[in-house]
Amino acid sequence: MALPLEGITVVSIEQAVAAPFATRQLADLGARVIKIERPHGGDFARHYDQTVHGLSSYFVWLNRSKQSLTLDLKRPEARAVLARLVARTDVLVHNLAPGADDRLGLGLLELRALHPRLITCAVSGYGTLGPYAKKKAYDMLIQAEVGLVSITGTPETPSRTGISVADIAAGMYAYSGVLTALFTRATTGLGTAIDVSLFDALGEWMGAPAYFTAYGGNEPGRNGAAHATIAPYELFVSGDDSEIYLAIQNDREWVRFCEVVLERPEITHDLRFATNTTRVQHRPILRAMIAEIFGTMPSAVLVDRLSAAGIAFARRNPVAGFLDHPQIVERDRWRTIGSPVGELRALLPPVQMDGVVPAMGAVPALGEHTEPILLELGFEQKTIDEWKKEQVI
């Protein structure tokens, strides 16, 4: 069965995380993604670390199934190549610095006028307008600006999240935006311009704490692994020092928790804990009471009681534990992909479509596809050899 995006060509002038994350999703669905990189060093995410047999863990994660074309876009010859390539392209993605697209002759209005079916997607830090439009933006800085750092961590230590959530949020909105634009073009015949910023993307994810703050008068506190507005929803320790993460979602679960897990049905009549609101208000007392009871029980007993009561719980896994998690192993979620350093493991994409096997191609070496792409575009071998000498490519 053909992949859903087979026949779609995506050109992406990308680096770091957000735009590459979006285009990798497109590549896994069968789009031909041509990644334009600088001849010297390429995407700087190639050099974040060297932990994957000398490759960057970020780059391996974000760039499988793509083709790497090196172009020094400051050179007129390279811009001529890009113009010829864009004329054959369905989607152009970039996360260039503000104003850089115009300097490179990539003004979106001009491109759309030349190519009405073209879909353009610009990924930026703060958007193209407003007082922050020209500010440099990286994931941690966006987390700080939208208030996420203020509500993450412990009371003593504001913290960024352990993964690049601003980049990932923007990448996912760019991905879904491109899919929507492709669907629209199929019915109207016209492309469109998409504008996604890290600030807006993560700002959308801040919806619940924003409403809580705007209408409650106070922002959610930093509670470590505990939920700011639900209780009990946090870590407790069993009598044999096993960590149990507990999540009570409603009052019915609270009653079952008291009766089956704690074996203290009389607690359900305590007005301090009758509703989630009152449980949050009396969280220190609630936490101490549950911790004391849990501390008398071995983890095996706790797990049995939680399961019998239908209470959601988990144990803290290290990242290494996730790699061989039974939910991954039993469902055969690992695949093998190629790379410049040999075969590597890669997880299947999260969305499973009946009859569709994701592309999951190799991670490209820098400039690996430059020569064949230029030949495909009609450039002569002599010209290509000259450009190599002159470091245009």
Can you put this structure into words, describing what you see?
- With 393 residues, this protein is an alpha/beta fold.
- The chain folds into two domains: 9-205 and 332-390, Crotonobetainyl-coa:carnitine coa-transferase, domain 1 (Rossmann fold); 233-314, 2-Layer Sandwich (formyl-coa transferase, domain 3).
- Helices cover 39% and strands 13% of the residues.
- It has 17 helices and eleven strands.
- The chain has helices at residues 18-28, 57-62, 76-86, 100-103, 108-114, 139-145, 165-188, 198-205, 207-216, 251-261, 276-281, 283-294, 299-309, 319-323, 326-329, 370-376, 381-390, and strands spanning 9-13, 32-37, 66-70, 91-94, 119-124, 193-197, 233-237, 243-247, 312-314, 334-337, 344-347.
- It has a six-stranded parallel β-sheet, sandwiched between helices. It has a three-stranded antiparallel β-sheet with strand order 7-8-9, with helices on one face.
- Strand 7 and strand 8 (243-247) form a beta hairpin.
- The model has no long low-confidence stretch (mean pLDDT 92).
CATH class membership of the largest domain: Alpha Beta
What order do the strands of the largest sheet run in, or round the barrel if closed? Answer: 3-2-1-4-5-6
Sheet having the most strands: 6 strands, parallel
CATH superfamily of the largest domain: Crotonobetainyl-coa:carnitine coa-transferase, domain 1
**Uncertain stretches:** none
Rg, nearest Å? 26 Å
**Topology order in helix (H) and strand (E) letters:** EHEHEHEHHEHHEHHEEHHHHEHHEEHH
**E-strand count:** 11
From the N-terminal CA to the C-terminal CA, the straight-line distance is: 36 Å
Q: Find the CATH topology of the largest domain.
A: Rossmann fold
**What is the number of helical segments per DSSP (H or I, 4+ residues)?**
17
Domain module tally: 2
Q: Give the overall shape, derived from the CA principal axes.
A: elongated
Share of helical residues: 25-40%
SS class: alpha/beta
